[in-house]
Design a protein that fits this description.
Length: about 400
């Protein structure tokens, strides 16, 4: 992939005293009117501080939740202002609109180094359909465009892709750059051995990732309920486990093609039902009872996967090994997280591909022990699948 210009490529004259329109991902959880998790704000903070230090007049755009192209107060970004001020370390001003005259005027009142947050972009009709008129109106809010919202980079929305047609320069922020460097580096020039760990409930959501990674990895470890579709392809009993019957033939074809590079769990942690973790027991993968279901990989698999991670120089993980949200079914996911943390200490490059995996390492308190934890679940999956990301393709190329 051709390298995109970043804020580090911008000249002083392109930023100082200019309105820098920054698309961030402040789609944060709210509880009782306050931000419950500041992870995404903290991820964008270096970009915002960098631009403010250069004398830019920073204008922030973000979505929050899934409002239906109309104002829904519960999805207002207003509660984010206090948390953003605290986390970024700069006063964040607020404007309760986005593209009207009041919003444009608010951007023009900014002084060098000041920061302004505008209201939810998804309140605007045309945002999610990438309406060109809305994109043009958004472009009137700035003099230069920065996309730092990797979590929304796979969406061709007016604020993530369309605006760049009307506003140049259009460059990547520091977070976007970091995401592309780590994920792109893992795919293009990984330190070897390179192993990928894929989990989650359904093989259908990971088919394209498996297809893309197979030619690149030295080993592919499978966990989660998606392993049961592979078990079914092997002719094994899967009991009440989640299986995708329409994907069984594909699973067999993938196993035949991958050969020794694809590793399935050797054993499974099974229980009569998901709400009965107290009755969980480990069984060999060919001994899953007809009256039970697999809710985690077993202890032998945990040990085997930990050894594989310990021997690797690049580890990419996307998808939990079991129902990690339920105590009793979280051992496999925890084992992978701890093994990756240890691998990082030894100098391996460890990448967590967003979504549930990112939530799991946060829950375990190990996010800081990884080389990189992606902020974009869907975006990281599409990137790993080799798909072009609309919010990246629209940015300036180096040397173009």
């Amino acid at each position: 992939m051709k390298r995109r210009r970043t804020i580090q490529d911008l000249r002083d004259a392109e930023v100082r005293a200019k309105r820098v329109l920054v698309r961030v991902d402040f789609n944060v959880p709210l509880a009782d009117g306050r931000v419950a998790d500041v992870t995404r704000i903290a991820a964008a903070a270096p970009t915002i501080r960098h631009l403010a230090a250069m004398g830019g007049r920073v204008v922030l755009l973000s979505h929050l939740g899934r409002p239906k192209a109309k104002v829904e107060p519960k999805y207002s970004l207003a509660p984010v202002v206090e948390a953003a001020t605290r986390v970024i370390g700069l006063p964040v001003q607020w404007c309760g609109t986005t593209v009207d005259a009041a919003a444009v005027e608010a951007t023009r009142r900014l002084k060098d180094g000041e920061v302004l947050l505008l209201e939810n972009t998804r309140f605007l009709p045309g945002e999610e359909t990438n309406d060109d008129g809305l994109a043009s109106a958004l472009a009137a809010l700035g003099d230069v465009y920065v996309n730092d919202a990797f979590g929304a980079a796979h969406r061709a929305h007016a604020s993530t892709a369309g605006v760049a047609k009307h506003l140049r320069p259009a460059v990547a922020g520091l977070l976007m750059q970091k995401e592309l460097d780590y994920l792109g580096g893992a795919l293009d020039k990984p330190k070897r051995p390179f192993i990928a760990i894929l989990g989650g409930s359904k093989i259908s959501g990971k088919i394209d990732v498996i297809e893309a990674l197979l030619p690149k990895v030295d080993g592919l470890l499978i966990g989660g309920a998606m392993a049961c579709t592979f078990f079914k392809a092997m002719g094994l009993e899967t009991g009440n486990s989640l299986v995708e019957p329409e994907r069984v033939a594909l699973a067999k074809e993938l196993m035949d093609r991958a050969g020794f590079r694809l590793t399935l769990p050797h054993d499974a942690l099974v229980a009569p039902a998901i709400d009965q973790p107290g009755q969980a027991r480990a069984v060999k993968r060919d001994a899953i009872p007809a009256t039970a279901a697999m809710y985690d990989i077993g202890p032998e698999s945990c040990a085997s996967y930990a050894r594989a991670i310990a021997a690797a120089q690049t580890v990419l993980w996307n998808g939990p090994m079991g129902v990690f949200e339920t105590p009793g079914f979280d051992a496999g996911t925890g084992t992978v997280a701890r093994a990756m943390a240890e691998a990082t200490k030894r100098g391996a490059t460890t990448i967590v591909g967003g979504g549930d995996s990112a939530a799991a390492v946060e829950q375990a308190g190990l996010a800081a022990s990884m080389s990189h934890v992606s902020t974009g679940g869907g975006a990281s999956l599409e990137f790993l699948e080799g798909k072009a990301l609309s919010g990246v393709e629209c940015l300036d190329q180096v040397g173009a």
